[in-house]
Amino acid sequence: SQQGEEDPQALSIQEGENATMNCSYKTSINNLQWYRQNSGRGLVHLILIRSNEREKHSGRLRVTLDTSKKSSSLLITASRAADTASYFCALYTGNQFYFGTGTSLTVIP
Amino acid sequence: DTEVTQTPKHLVMGMTNKKSLKCEQHMGHRAMYWYKQKAKKPPELMFVYSYEKLSINESVPSRFSPECPNSSLLNLHLHALQPEDSALYLCASSQEGHLSEQYFGPGTRLTVT
Asked: Which residue among A100, B24, B99, B108 is buried most deeply as judged by most CB within 10 Å?
């Protein structure tokens, strides 16, 4: 499969805890993006990290990229009930673009 | 205005019908996309328009026909669909193709009967 593989498939945490999800892929990439999707609606872009970057932050979000291991992680700190959603990584190889399998995050109030 | 709009929100059509999905953005983006998403699956790229020209067709069946009348509008014409084509169809746009973030519309929930 050319898709990025995400793990875990599902994650359930208490409000206030941190959530970490991982994306692994098989080919070289130009950039990697993370998106959030609430309950079958449109996706919302979270962070874009380029292949020459190792870490980016945006508010409570931290993304790391390890191109040698072909993997990325998304950390959400101090989670809130509103963070409940599906999270997808998306990979651009330079001529192909595809989403990972997704992680379903549930934050329990 | 950072919004991508899609109409209709829901569509039910028979296998012999012809219908169209519409997408609009006013962010000045030069790339627009159609995705298909089945339940509990990631979106799958169907078409990419860059500067109003079709640049990528991910081997989509001909019963799906895209059209880009101008840089702000994107249509997806549907004809002779199959029940397995029932899905959420998402439109997105971006400033620099896949080099930049995509803005998604809310989607059209399509049911083929």
From this structure: A100
